[in-house]
Amino acid sequence: MGAHVLQCIGLFLAGILAGEELIVRYGLEPALSKLEDRPHLQARQAVVRSLRVVVPIIMVPTVLAGIAVLVFSGTGTGFGLRLATVVALVAFVLLSFLGTVPINIQVNDWNVDSPPADWKAVIRRWERIDVFRSSAAVLAFAFAVIAFGLQLSVN
């Protein structure tokens, strides 16, 4: 498979991941915060159950494609940006597995009629982590697009 085709696949996947993350961060989260407590928790739990399937289906191939592009595209034009893409994707994965995923596991187990006393603080912590997490996905996409554009302009 040619390097350009591989880069196009990586771009597509990174774009899907960035788009999904933007919607969760800036579309879904503000909407959830406007709900009363019980409906907020019910909706949050439903989202967690849905996205714990969807996000890995997008994340794993995106990271693998990013690594493949880095390895097979060489060290020429755009290498630094391709490396930055992979670094941003690794940051996304780490922020997910060390930050938001453990919180999502907790949230999924909460009783919506009697959540823990600190549940709002836990959600605020998730939101702070998610700003960095979603930003990492968007940066990965931006770096990949610019790297591809630079490489095309040289060829």
Verbal overview:
The protein contains four helices and no strands. The chain has helices spanning 3-33, 37-72, 79-109, 119-154. With 155 residues, it is an all-alpha fold. The mean pLDDT is 94. The two termini are 17 Å apart. The chain has one domain. The longest helix has 36 residues, at 37-72.
Got a strand count?
Answer: 0
> What's the mean pLDDT score?
94
Order of helices and strands: HHHH
Distance between the termini: 17 Å
Please tally the helical runs, counting DSSP H or I stretches of 4 or more residues. Answer: 4
Number of domains: 1
Main beta sheet strand tally, sense and closure: none
The low-pLDDT segments are none
Overall geometry? elongated
The oligomeric state is single chain
**Beta-strand proportion:** under 5%
Condensed summary:
With 155 residues, the chain is mainly alpha-helical. The chain has helices spanning 3-33, 37-72, 79-109, 119-154.
Describe the SSE topology.
Blueprint: H1 3-33, H2 37-72, H3 79-109, H4 119-154
Helix pairs in contact: 1-2, 1-4, 2-3, 3-4
Task: Give short descriptive properties of this protein.
155 residues; mainly alpha; 4 helices; 0% strand; elongated
